[in-house]
User: Fold this.
Amino acid sequence: MEKVKLALNYALMLEMIKAKGLDQQAIITLLNEGEEADFENFGEGIPTWKTLIDYYRINKNKFHLALKEGYEITFLTKGALKSLLRIKFGMKEGEDFIDTGEFLDQVKITNEDLDALQGVISKNWTIVKEEGIKIELTYKPVFNI
Assistant:
């Protein structure tokens, strides 16, 4: 069965809430109540928490599946990938990975977190296990020189 696909902003906001220790039922309760102010202690919404609340109201079944069975992010920029690593896994650039400009290198991640990352990462990124772990674009741009 294919995972639910979530846009980057919804996935990052969901991970911000989960990072504060809320379980699935507590997240659903908050979203059903729909008070934007209740989300302020989770961090800055991307773009606002109202966006997540509105999305939930329109897509309850999809969101419940994403919480229960997991999700895949539809597309990640490199900056968003770094945000995901920070929010979901508590990783820090320069300590847990290096941004080489073209890819993320020397990624220090547990096997459990690596499995979780592989489950949510968008298809435009590939995790390469060579001498260490790096995360690179699946389809690298070609420049006509």
Summary: The chain has two domains: 4-73, 78-137. The chain is about 45% helix and 15% strand.
